[in-house]
Write a structure and sequence with these properties.
The protein has helices spanning 156-163, 169-186, 218-221, 285-327, 334-373, 445-466, 484-493, 503-526, 555-567, 592-597, 631-647, and strands at 3-4, 10-12, 17-35, 47-48, 54-55, 58-59, 65-73, 83-89, 107-111, 117-122, 131-140, 143-153, 401-408, 417-422, 428-432, 472-477, 541-549, 573-579, 598-601, 606-610, 617-621. The model is unreliable at 194-252 and 260-267 (pLDDT under 50). α9 links the parallel β17 (541-549) and β18. The radius of gyration is 27 Å and the shape is globular. α1 packs across α2. The chain is built from eleven helices and 21 strands. The longest helix has 43 residues, at 285-327. With 648 residues, it is α+β, with helices and mostly antiparallel strands. The strands form three sheets. Strands 1, 2, 3, 4, 5, 6, 7, 8, 9, 10, 11 and 12 form a twelve-stranded mixed sheet that branches. Strands 16-17-18-15-19 form a five-stranded parallel sheet, sandwiched between helices. Strands 14-13-21-20 form a four-stranded antiparallel sheet.
């Protein structure tokens, strides 16, 4: 039976392996500190936080999020640990709320691994506090108990850590906030929630989930595809204080309602449903496919998280059993010790094999779904080698999203998930031409720079291809002309708004024109006169591709780039940087806000992106044109012809 705790109340914990689930409605940091019998935290190594999410016996989320799951194996904690403090904090430096009094009361639930609730606690009564101790898990007479605390700190994490006796409190708080900002910069933004209302019927009658406040960045949302009830995700819970039952070990992957929720009429009873392209909620086939891809992305993140958690538990259990076997000097040698070690190894192998079997089953199911979804994707979502490009026609409407490459995990090399990013772009792109974008240290730097420009041209071409005529324009800054070979398809087809800008004068002119456009549109929007822009202002969305930064850029140009990155997306100006960050190190911290505002992608496979639910390190695969293919030239030619016809 669930106990609804109030501040100061405690309850016996019936098990030692459990989760603490947090739902806040806004991005927060979740962490935990370990303390000794006197309640002291000896050092920063006893604190689990986004910069160091795993300690022996516990794991927290690696990024700020609206919802979290913190996993605990209390028996695996060091013997010197007598108390675990669960803390929550509002992150700084991301433009969100700065006090808990301005947001909904955080809801905390202690659950078993099957989702059954042990205790819940709504942290009310907060005002100016920006950090709070939510719960304490503590030893008492050989067993573990949970206490609702709710003690807030207006001084944030630094004040909280100082109260726990950490001498490095301020430095630790700063490092946590830095880790949160880094996580924000590397996360793929999730789909926004569906806006309330609307007169078009849904494809299914499944109820919509409670809607949180809309946001723009991945850690701020932690919501699945719009219109889909939220299922139990690692480090995620539903917005309502209701437990979500997790599948038993060996059960099928926990898919979204609307995706394979029932076998087709022809399927025998008990047989799994055959995958169907577009088998998700949505008002159109495009939206259903988009939601289906995001559902597959989330399911893969969740099933891999379950596998890794099971393996971690098996490893910690093996370590504990071996320690116990070696603790008795009489059992270290001889048959008794060998039998204990063999039994521990056998139990470990059984648990790992069981987890791998569940993962393989889920991967097989998702691969079968991918095999039918991939060929059905429209051009905006499809790979460049898809047959859909052979019948390409310039669209008349802007699509929901665009594909920027593929994502996969080490456990799922054969399953690649399309990386779909909503349109219009909310963040610019930084295509890293440095060596950090390749796992191979022998890759030629010149080859990486060439590949980076090829990726930039592929992205720019796709954006031109998926927008209606006259709705999207591309500008290029190439100070030294080094990108000319890669830019040739754009130049030959005539799809560029202007010729590539070269030299210092060309750089200054291109940046001045676009910053003036941002200023004009901002003034018009703020003054309620969007229809009164001067005749010469191009109202189409603009993409600026910048090659070979920082060569050819002075301080004024750097500030203009930062301005475009910060202010441009809201008024239709987007930035795509092709640059090696190490080359720009001379500018120091001046460029840090610029890099953080852009989504980093690479010209070679690299595991630097994170999902918006668990924070796995996903390997990004850039888009590749088939060798010898003429598809890009044909597509750009059609775009140019459609633009000429549209201009009359």
């Amino acid at each position: 039976m669930t106990a609804e705790l109030v501040r100061g109340q405690n309850r016996q914990l019936p098990q030692v392996r459990l989760e603490v689930r947090v739902s806040a409605g806004t991005p927060i940091v979740a962490g935990a500190t370990l303390s000794d019998e006197q309640g002291r935290v000896p050092g920063t190594e006893w604190v689990a936080h986004p910069g160091k999410p795993v300690l022996r016996g516990l794991e927290v989320s690696g990024q700020a999020a609206a919802d979290h799951r913190l996993a605990f194996d209390l028996d695996a904690l060091p013997e010197s640990v007598h108390r675990v403090t669960v803390l929550l904090a509002l992150p700084t430096g991301i433009g969100g709320p700065v006090r808990f009094g301005a947001v909904a009361a955080p809801f905390v639930a202690v659950t078993g691994l099957d989702g059954s609730q042990v205790a819940t606690y709504s942290i009310t009564g907060l005002d100016s506090e920006s950090a709070v101790i939510a719960l304490e898990l503590y030893r008492r007479q050989g067993s573990w108990k949970v206490r609702a605390v709710g003690q807030g700190y207006a001084g944030g994490l630094a004040a909280l850590f100082m109260d726990q006796g950490l001498p490095e409190a301020r430095q630790l708080a700063d490092s946590i906030n830095e880790a949160v900002v880094r996580g924000l910069a590397r996360s793929v933004a999730p789909p926004p929630p569906r806006p309330p209302g609307g007169d078009r019927a849904r494809r299914t009658t499944a109820p919509a989930p409670p809607q949180g406040p809309p946001g723009t960045m991945a850690p701020a949302q932690h919501q699945g595809p719009p219109g889909l009830p939220q299922q139990g995700r690692p480090y995620d819970i539903t917005d309502a204080p209701v437990p979500v039952a997790q599948p038993a070990l060996g059960g099928p992957v926990d898919q979204h309602p609307g995706r394979h929720t029932a076998p087709p009429p022809a399927a025998p009873a008990g047989q799994a449903a055959q995958p169907i392209a577009g088998d998700a909620t949505g008002w159109s086939m495009e939206e259903r496919l988009y939601n289906q891809v995001w559902g597959m992305f989330e399911d893969l993140a969740r099933t891999v998280a379950a596998y890794r958690s099971a393996v971690d538990f098996a490893d910690s259990r093996l370590e504990k059993e071996l320690d116990e076997a070696l603790a008795d000097p009489r059992a270290r040698l001889g048959r008794q010790g060998d039998a204990a070690r063999d039994a521990a190894q056998a139990r470990h192998a059984h648990l790992v094999n069981q987890a791998r079997a569940a993962l393989d089953r889920d991967l097989t199911q998702l691969i079968a779904e991918s095999d039918v979804v991939e060929p059905a994707l429209p051009p905006a979502f499809a790979r460049w080698d898809s047959p859909v490009w052979q019948g390409y026609r310039v669209p008349t409407e802007i699509p929901m999203a665009v594909r920027l490459g593929d994502l996969h995990l080490p456990e799922s090399e054969s399953l690649h998930i399309p990386m779909l990013v909503r349109l219009p772009l909310e963040r610019g792109l930084w295509i890293d031409s440095g060596r950090s974008g390749s796992p191979d240290p022998l890759v030629d730097p010149d080859e990486l720079r060439r590949l980076a420009m090829d990726v930039a041209v592929a992205h720019a071409s796709r954006l031109l291809a998926v927008y209606p005529p006259g709705a999207f324009a591309v500008h290029v800054i190439d100070p030294a002309g080094s990108g000319a070979p890669a830019l040739a398809p754009l130049v030959r087809s005539g799809v560029l708004a202007t010729a590539p800008a070269v030299g210092a004068a060309g750089v200054a002119d291109a940046l001045t024109r676009l910053t003036q456009r941002v200023d004009l549109v901002q003034m018009a929007v703020r003054g309620g006169a969007s229809d009164s822009l001067p005749p010469g202002v191009d109202t189409a969305r603009q993409l600026l591709v910048v090659n070979d930064f920082p060569h050819g850029f002075d301080d004024r140009a750097v500030n203009q780039l930062r301005y475009l990155a910060d202010e441009g997306p809201d008024v239709g100006v987007h930035l795509m940087m092709v640059a090696d960050r190490e080359d720009a190190a001379a500018y120091g911290p001046l460029l840090d806000p610029l890099w953080r505002s852009l989504l980093r992608v690479t010209p070679a496979p690299d595991d630097h992106l994170a999902d918006p639910w668990v924070g796995h390190a996903w390997t990004y695969e850039p888009p590749r044109l088939p060798k010898g293919s003429q598809v890009l030239g044909r597509v750009l030619t059609q775009v140019a012809e459609a633009r000429r016809s549209w201009n009359g």
